[in-house]
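Bench notes, bay 3.
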Amino acid sequence: MIKDTGEHVIPENMKITNELLIEHVARYPFASEYVYGLVLDFASGTGYGTHILAKKGKGCVDKVVGIDLDWKAVNYARGNY
């Protein structure tokens, strides 16, 4: 489990009405309309956005890779997505 310090968005720890969560989560379905091939998600954090891109990538996405410097966030993403 990753500690919620406010640095990363952890969807299951936030209320659905949280404006930060709504803003962050809205970006990925929008972006998924425009991605194709190999998709690199830099500063992927907890991985929820990388997961959305992989699932909604319009069939044109070959692979989605999330990259983050925080190894705890990477481990969280691996375990949850």
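Next record in the batch:
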Amino acid sequence: MSKNRPRIKNDKQYEALREKGMSKQKAARIANTENSGKKGGEAARYEERTKEELYRQAQKVGIKGRSKMSKKELIYSLRNN
């Protein structure tokens, strides 16, 4: 493991995402989320969340231009980031 690589909370998930072809940045973002590696489908669907909740999630993952996005655009960006 490289000393320059940022700390990954869930190495197993990170490596699996990289094997699926995700970029290092996207795989690291997903593997570093609070509930990385947890299963169960307990998270609310994006459509059920408020725009403010979606905005905060977009902020966490570093989506640019989020302040000007509608709820529908935030959902699209979160799903396709």
